[in-house]
Amino acid sequence: MSLQLLTNARIVDGTTDRPADPVNILIEGGTIREVGAKVTSAKARVIDLKNRVTMPGLIDCHVHTIAGVADLGANATLPDSLVMSRAIRIMNGMLMRGFTTVRDVGGADFGVKLAAEEGVIPMPRVVMSGKALSQTGGHCDFRGRFDDRPTPKTGFSLGALGRICDGIEESRRAAREEIKAGADFIKIMANGGVASPTDPIHFMGFAREEILAIVEEARNAGTYVSAHLYTDEAIRRAVDCGVHSLEHCNLIETETARFAADAGAVAVPTLVTYEKLASEGASLGFPKNSVAKIDNVRLAGLKSLEIMRDAGLTMAYGTDLLGEMHRHQSEEFVIRGRVLKAQEIIASATHIAAKLCRMQGLIGVIAPGAHADIIAVDGNPLDDLTLLTGQGRHMPLILRGGAIAKRKNLN
Fold first, then answer.
1. pTM greater than 0.90 (yes/no)
2. What are phi and psi of 236, to 5 degrees?
3. Residue-range definition of the domain harbouring residue 16
4. Are 66 and 323 spatial neighbours (Cβ–Cβ below 8 Å)?
5. Which of 318, 326, 317, 249 is nearest to 280 (CA)?
6. CA 43, 47, 48: angle at the middle one, nearest 5?
7. Domain contains 378
8. 306, 329, 352 — which closes off a domain?
9. 164-209 pLDDT per residue, tens
10. Which of 196, 223, 185 is nearest to 74 (CA)?
11. 3 state DSSP class of 134
């Protein structure tokens, strides 16, 4: 296997508030073999990272790789070939921003995951839920109030965000089918949503018994349930039912945040998507009725970060962008920086995110045995989070599994 030696690497990984002392990183094939001040190899290709900060590849825990257009429901009407070609472009853009792993929470299938692993076109590795589960009239039902066509149960196009299931038995079967199809975890729509037409934000998705059944199926398969959630009531109910990953959480309140923290749950705020839907959504085809819902959750976003931080609720990094708005993926760092410390935000996109992806020790860390997912940054993101924005312009080196996705102005 080929050997690479990264020298003078000052690591920033969210575990401390300053860059570590310089070390060398020896990479064999796609894996980090050694890390230390005295590590060397006469056979390795050397890349000197002096005067730069070295980070684990970033992890985005809330993406929809198949959302090539902003009108989320419209993606399901497109041919699979077109959806996949757009997904490849979207994911390549993510990698060029330094995101070496993404967690797809509704839409991607196992073929998307395999395409990322084959590496014909450089893309992040994919952790996925498969199709998200929704009840009739919920956040995966885009039929509209006057569309009475039967709800499809199977055979979804690649562009579909999710699938409909009603009742305990249907919900169990849907969870089992997604796990059989390769899902790493199960995603449910347990609250109303912005993008869907018939479910206001306060809408409670699924009956309690249905959620319990889906949680049981996930646990039987050795994994967990992630839930789309906004309101405090819905979040509390989901945690009480055993849901582990809490997506969005804009309207969470202090008592529920503490309850979730005590239960060991993880929140995944996604503030950048509301900012960009408000400013760009209408011009990019986001439905008018959906645009009207945005401020219900957008205006509470920063306050929710304060509440969750003060309650000790662990937060992972997520963005939830759609269509052309994917280019704003890294701006979530800056938005969170209005409330949280840079170290906390970097941790959310490295080792905390890795744990939520069930890949701790393999991603989000620079250590022996981990995947060689590494980025170099011109400057210190602990002092300036904007260095992680700009479509990767401040990242002269991006490695994904040891393969060089980008190398610029390095010896």
1. yes
2. -60, -45
3. 3-57+364-407
4. no
5. 326
6. 125
7. yes
8. 329
9. 999 999 999 999 999 999 999 999 999 988 767 778 889 999 999 9
10. 196
11. strand
